[in-house]
Amino acid sequence: RMSVRKISTLRSQLIDCGLISVVRHGLKNFKIYVNTPETTPAETDLVLPWANFDFEKPIKSVPADSASTKLQKLPINQSNNNQTKLLLSRESNESVSQNQSNTLVTPKKSEKDVLNELSLDSIITRLKDTFSLPVVSRLKVLANNSYTKLKWFSDTIFKAKSQVTKKLLSNTRWLYNPASQEATRFESNDLLKRGLESALLQIAEIVYKGKEKIQNKAKFIYVYLRNFMANAVKQYLIDNYELTEDDEIELNLLLSF
């Protein structure tokens, strides 16, 4: 490798040999470019043959018999062979243990869990015939996938509706009136069917996230559902039937708990 000072000192000789070229750059500056040297012709005798040494050694053809004899005469290091076998056995054991750790072992469900799932599927199938899918989903969340809690919520809803129906039919005007049957059924009263989901959301917010602590949660849920259904039945009758002011006042008194 040649330094910058050496190139500057031998600049004229290098230019004469065609190894570098000097180009003016601006008014006072010059740039020195190194030219690509020409390759030596093949028929030329080299003055310094060692300078053009080729690192690629020619491959010598070896007879098959001599190669086999050489391989047979090679010394075998028994300790290295044992170490290789030990490493291979360790790698195989590690791979087996890693595969075993990667395979997840699913625990078997107990008989109690299986019965709980079957009971949940059974009651959910029955609820889907009456309630909408969002209502069933809310009930599953509130019950935390417990059959006992889900059955309690289902019984509480029908119990609250039964009390509202009984209170409405206690009046002779609504006892044999077809309007009372339409107003107290989930299939015909959209206010009951659609409003039940929002009622369950409000119950969850008040009971589980409310600031005030509720002493008797079961009683609160029952009273809340009963009042919601009473308002839904009353509003259905007012919207779909012509009632006088006296009829509305009487209906409000009848469905007030």
Automatic annotation (TrEMBL):
<protein>
    <submittedName>
        <fullName>Replication protein</fullName>
    </submittedName>
</protein>
